[in-house]
Design brief:
Layout (H helix, E strand, L loop, with lengths): L1 E2 L12 E6 L5 H15 L4 E6 L17 E2 L4 H10 L2 E5 L11 H6 L4 E5 L11 E4 L6 H11 L8 H14 L10 H12 L4 H9 L4 H13 L1 E4 L4 E6 L1 H6 L22 E7 L4 E7 L5 H8 L3 E2 L3 E6 L3 H14 L1 H4 L1
Parallel strand pairs: 1-7, 2-3, 2-5, 3-4, 5-6, 6-7, 9-10
Antiparallel strand pairs: 8-9, 10-11, 11-13, 12-13
Length: about 325
């Protein structure tokens, strides 16, 4: 994978560009994709954003979000656009399989794929150019850096500012996580100087849900949370019946894994959700417990040191049993 700086001189040559985030894009993946699109359009490029799947409805406030193409819904249209693409930017994921049903098509494209991502262990051979930096708080921070490094800091627009800030806020846990460096605060100060109105972004990110989500969260914390004090671990197990009962939609479970972290002494929080095709895991840790290694070893996943995800094709009961085994095998790291 060649350095991403090599493409800077090529930005002036108008191209057909596709931007792809990971499946079920969150605020960082969607924000980075939209911000990059608004930046590249200023050079005369033709831009399409193709999401591998649908996304949370509470992201639709982001400028340009409603023009994003859902691959699952518009497969033929999306594949035709990819066939004509001259560049494909891959944002907030570093392995093609993270794009789910889109992965096979993304592997077939003949044009260069360009990586911008901050997760661990990138599959660099899949990308012509790119940057992978695990020290960065978010892919949105990396898009901000990309704009500056290219020498075009004069091209920040209101749309870019809102999208970048949204992704940074979301991926830093509102500036709580250890990834919140001095550079992140300087980024925010710069965006404020450029006209950022941060209150409306926070409202759209965190005060934009339906009543059923609040009741769902309460139900989960009361009835689906198990605390293992001997392992300093909390496990949340959500069966499909809960998703149906509370009419849970994409994005409604976002942030749920963070609630039990407020319990004194807890070092690891795990949540498993019974989806139709698989069981989806999310992990959060404090201190020196490596979620990335844990998820890769036991649940076909990965991500960051203190935040990662995983999956299982086993039944909900079986995958929970495997978690109990994994927890016991890691007791020396959890105490």
């Amino acid at each position: 994978m060649k350095p991403i700086e090599d493409i800077f001189p090529l930005l002036y040559q108008a191209k057909r560009i596709v931007i792809v985030p990971h499946q079920k894009p969150d605020a960082d993946a969607m924000g980075a994709s939209l911000a990059l699109s608004y930046f590249l359009k200023q050079f005369g490029h033709s831009i399409n954003i193709i999401s591998p799947t649908n996304w949370a409805g509470w992201l639709n406030w982001m400028p340009g979000c409603k023009e994003v193409i859902d691959y699952d819904l518009f497969k033929e249209k999306a594949e035709k656009i990819l066939d004509q693409a001259e560049w494909v930017f891959c944002l907030d994921f570093n392995a093609i399989h993270r794009t789910k049903n889109l992965a096979a098509k993304l592997e077939q494209v003949t044009c260069p794929r360009i990586l911008i991502d901050h997760h661990q262990q990138p599959d660099e051979k899949c990308f012509e150019w790119g940057i992978s930096d695990t020290s960065k708080s978010s892919t949105c921070e990396m898009i901000y850096d990309f704009v500056y490094a290219s020498g075009h800091s004069n091209k920040f627009t209101k749309e870019m500012i809102d999208c970048i800030y949204a992704g940074v806020v979301a991926d830093t846990g509102s500036f709580r996580f250890s990834s919140t460096t001095a550079a992140v605060h300087k980024l925010v100060a710069d965006l404020k100087d450029r006209g950022l109105e941060h209150m409306h972004v926070h409202n759209d990110l965190f005060d934009n849900f339906l009543e059923n989500r609040m009741r769902f969260i309460g139900h989960v914390l009361i009835n689906r949370m198990e605390v293992f004090y001997e392992y300093n671990t909390v496990l949340l197990v959500i069966p499909k019946s809960d998703l149906l009962r509370f009419q849970v939609k994409t994005g409604d479970t976002e942030g749920l894994v963070n609630y039990p972290q407020s319990i004194r002494g807890i070092k690891l929080v795990a949540i498993v959700i019974d989806r139709d095709e698989e069981r989806k895991w999310s992990f959060r840790s404090k201190g020196d417990f490596d979620c990335n290694t844990f998820a890769r070893k036991y649940f076909e996943g990965g991500g960051h040191y203190n935040a990662s995800g995983g999956r299982s094709s086993l039944s909900l009961d079986e995958t929970v049993k495997n978690f109990h085994i994994a927890m016991k095998e890691n007791i020396h790291l959890l105490q």
